[in-house]
Write a sequence for this structure.
């Protein structure tokens, strides 16, 4: 595993990962994989922005009047909620990408 | 020797023996082991090591106290120092792991096919890590002096010796596995007192739950209003909204651009492992970072509540401050208040002579002269932020062994961060500057000698600054984050996501970002750094020195993007390199390559 990373200058000697590929790797497939990745990143970073910058900072005064448990919702996002969502976002990304990598047959 | 001191010697002794044993068991012989732990670190272990690497003495000792004073606005640290991991996991770590070399300058130099870009990234790495590590070594000394009663200088030397042992023998491998152990020590030491004090005040053993669902915060808000403060949960009382926004962005992006954090993701076996280890790292960090605001609120409530209830039993005049002994209404003495006054971190003065001590807004004393009460305020209490964490075990009346464990935890936090920074700094010098730029023909043996000697030099430098701290160390920590945000982060991000980014763009972007941020911080902190009577520049459209890296980052992005588009595109093999880092497996990049 550790030594399997080929030098990135793959000119003409790029293999297809030990012959496990079902289809040949193509530029279209590479582009499709990258577009999918960008979409997922975009959605997850939008959530990241909303729970931290929007809920905890830009809407701090608006959400101050909304209770969560015993405390204002904006305060909860600022000191608890956003952090919890951050952790979930990373694991969700891992989980989704595991599936996408398999679908495109680029899993290690 | 008190019972607490005895336990401290025992617990700190055991943890140090453990670190030394781990360092010895993980010694390495080759550069791959030395710089990236042979790329064999499992994701969970790398997560724990990253968390320990990341959480410094400041996170462990000072952060809860800062939040306690700042209230809502403490979110800048809570969000700023966690949100960056989402950026790392989604935008940087997997691709850098696929690239698979040793350092940040490695990627910047190769991706922008330029030794100049490599050199700028290496210099940025050294400046960022050096400003950061000076404070860490001092932290080791302070923890030693506070808990074990050793002189600060001796504490610094002891810390240097321990780090030197496992870093010289084991490089990244030794550091990684020591950090895993250090994470275990520091999180246990942080959680036990937090759970105990939460139980004491709310009856709920989980601080995060009682913070949100018990009535402790409403009670704290009410009592704050009674005493003439604003509500504890009221936003933007200590910083403006625009500044909170800018500081949070700078800390998040700075986190994602810090070389010693990024390097950790080169040590795992695969791209998938890099993603997961970012998740584990943030989970381990979040355990402490969601507990800290609970401690902050509990401790503040407890302090106010104790003072309201207590009366003065006795006053012993002292040289630096009078020791005011308090007792509860039932006659029991408030022992922690007395013992912490003796450290100079807590001071009382009964200004109105009513036999009680009152916490009110404003400074209780003139400067830090505890013999001279400030006549302009009704406040009778001075407390150092650090006391919020340090006094917790005594307030909750925990056994001396727990107090000793907190000492070991503080040392673990400081040592683990220092060792990660020292490695990042020395690998920029020995790997990037010496091997990649000056002596590309160096043998493996020469490179190992260079690596080890640079670590030794870095440890000696850090130790020197720990013993003779420049007065402005505390002032320039902001610099490390600002510079990382303004230099590394945009260069790496564009290197992965913008195939058109070229060397001219990256170099001009990094230079503009670095120079702007450095200049603004020097101007805004000129009173501390150059001794001008007031800062030359007060703020930048309402943004403070802590947040200025955000503007530097935006400038870097804009310049790099525009310059890249008006100059020649990068050569084909660089575009192939970008294609290859975007895909997890092998080198299946070029069409028809099978």
């Amino acid at each position: 595993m550790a030594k399997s990373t080929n030098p990135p200058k793959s000119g003409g000697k790029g293999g297809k990962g030990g012959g496990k590929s079902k289809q040949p790797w193509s530029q279209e497939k590479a582009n499709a994989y990258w577009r999918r990745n960008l979409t997922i990143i975009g959605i997850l970073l939008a959530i990241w922005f909303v729970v931290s910058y929007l809920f905890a900072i830009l809407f701090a005064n608006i959400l101050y009047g909304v209770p969560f448990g015993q405390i204002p919702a904006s305060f909860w996002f600022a000191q608890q909620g956003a952090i919890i969502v951050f952790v979930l976002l990373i694991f969700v990304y891992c989980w989704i990408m595991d599936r996408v990598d398999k679908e495109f047959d680029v899993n290690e | 020797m008190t019972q607490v001191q005895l336990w401290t010697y025992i617990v700190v002794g055991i943890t140090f023996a453990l670190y030394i044993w781990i360092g010895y068991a993980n010694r390495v012989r080759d550069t791959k082991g030395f710089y990236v732990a042979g790329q064999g670190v499992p994701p969970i272990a790398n997560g724990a090591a990253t968390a320990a690497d990341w959480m410094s003495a400041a996170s462990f000792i000072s952060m809860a106290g800062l939040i306690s004073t700042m209230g809502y606005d403490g979110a800048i640290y809570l969000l700023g120092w966690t949100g960056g991991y989402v950026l790392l996991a989604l935008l940087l770590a997997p691709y850098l792991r696929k690239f698979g070399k040793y350092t940040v300058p490695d990627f910047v130099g190769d991706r922008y096919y330029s030794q100049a870009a490599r050199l700028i990234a290496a210099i940025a790495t050294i400046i960022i890590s050096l400003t950061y590590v000076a404070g860490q070594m001092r932290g080791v000394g302070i923890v030693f002096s506070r808990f074990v009663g050793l002189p600060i200088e001796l504490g610094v030397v002891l810390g240097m010796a321990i780090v030197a042992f496992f870093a010289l023998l084991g490089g990244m491998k030794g550091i990684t596995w020591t950090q895993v152990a250090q994470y275990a020590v520091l999180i246990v030491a942080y959680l036990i007192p937090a759970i105990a004090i939460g139980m004491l005040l709310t009856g709920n053993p989980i601080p995060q739950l009682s913070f949100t669902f018990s009535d402790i915060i409403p009670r704290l808000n009410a009592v704050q209003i009674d005493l003439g403060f604003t509500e504890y949960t009221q936003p933007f009382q200590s910083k403006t909204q625009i500044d909170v926004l800018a500081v949070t962005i700078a800390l998040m992006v700075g986190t994602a651009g810090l070389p010693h954090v990024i390097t950790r993701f080169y040590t795992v076996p695969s791209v998938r492992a890099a993603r997961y280890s970012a998740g584990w790292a943030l989970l381990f960090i979040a355990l402490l970072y969601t507990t800290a605001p609970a401690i902050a609120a509990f401790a503040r409530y407890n302090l106010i509540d104790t003072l309201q209830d207590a009366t003065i039993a006795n006053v012993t005049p002292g040289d630096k401050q009078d020791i005011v002994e308090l007792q509860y209404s039932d006659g029991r003495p408030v022992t922690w208040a007395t013992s912490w006054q003796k450290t100079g971190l807590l001071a009382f003065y009964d200004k109105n002579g009513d036999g009680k001590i009152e916490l009110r807004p404003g400074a209780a004393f003139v400067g830090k002269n505890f013999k001279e009460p400030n006549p302009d305020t009704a406040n009778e209490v001075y407390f150092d932020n650090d006391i919020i964490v340090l006094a917790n075990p005594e307030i909750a009346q925990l056994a001396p062994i727990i107090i000793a464990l907190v000492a070991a935890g503080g040392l673990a936090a400081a040592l683990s961060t220092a060792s990660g920074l020292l490695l990042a700094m020395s690998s920029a010098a020995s790997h990037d500057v010496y091997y990649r730029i000056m002596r590309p023909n160096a043998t493996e043996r020469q490179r190992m000698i260079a690596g080890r000697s640079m670590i030794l030099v870095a440890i000696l430098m850090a130790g020197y600054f720990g013993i003779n701290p420049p007065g402005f160390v505390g002032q320039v920590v902001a610099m490390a984050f600002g510079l990382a945000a303004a230099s590394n982060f945009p260069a790496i991000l564009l290197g992965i996501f913008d195939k058109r980014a070229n060397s001219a763009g990256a170099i001009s972007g990094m230079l503009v970002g670095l120079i702007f941020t450095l200049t603004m911080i020097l101007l805004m902190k000129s009173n501390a750094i150059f001794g001008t009577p007031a800062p030359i520049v007060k703020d930048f459209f309402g943004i403070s020195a802590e947040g200025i890296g955000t503007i530097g980052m935006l400038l870097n992005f804009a310049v790099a993007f525009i310059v890249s588009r008006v100059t020649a595109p990068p050569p084909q093999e660089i575009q192939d390199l970008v294609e290859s880092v975007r895909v997890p497996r092998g080198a299946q990049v070029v069409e028809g390559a099978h």
